[in-house]
Every structure is written in C-alpha cells, then in structure tokens.
Amino acid sequence: MRITMDEIVNAVCAHMAERQEVPVTAVEVELNWDEDQGYTAEVWVQGRSRYLVEANLKESIMRYMLAEYDQRVYPSQITLMLDDEIYAEIEQ
C-alpha cells in the first residue's frame, strides 16, 4: 500500500495537533530529504518550529493507518521513499 505525501502531511498534522492539544489547522508541515539527515519534517505549531526525524514520521504514519484504515502497522513495515515527492510504502 502506498501513502502519498499529502497523507503523510495529514498524518503528521493530526499527530502533532493531538500531542500539543491544538486544532489541526494550527499545525504546518514541510517534509524534507537530504543525504545527511534522511527523511525529516519541519513542523510549526502555533508559530513554534521543531524538527521531526524519520522515526517520528513513522510514528505519525502508524497512528494515521490505524485511524484512517483500521490497520495496525509497525515501523518495520513502513519504508519512506522519494520519487518526484516523498511517499511511504506499507508492507502488508
């Protein structure tokens, strides 16, 4: 199963909104990839910036998969990839 970049952004927004106890609309996300850091995201919550690493992104995707698709997945089943945009492949 493939999770699109938009779905990953939605997953991170929902996860951070829940953790910070703010509305989803108060969260902004920018996904990144570079050779040194790998997959990361810069997240702004009510104007405060923080960086998430790949493990944080996978945690958000795990919660999203359970909430949206009623599927429990584990970090080892999630592979982040880059083509024209970042996406995630989920092993079933």
From TrEMBL:
Pfam family, one: DUF2653
Highest taxon in the source lineage: Bacteria
Official protein name in the record: DUF2653 family protein
Organism of this sequence: Cohnella nanjingensis
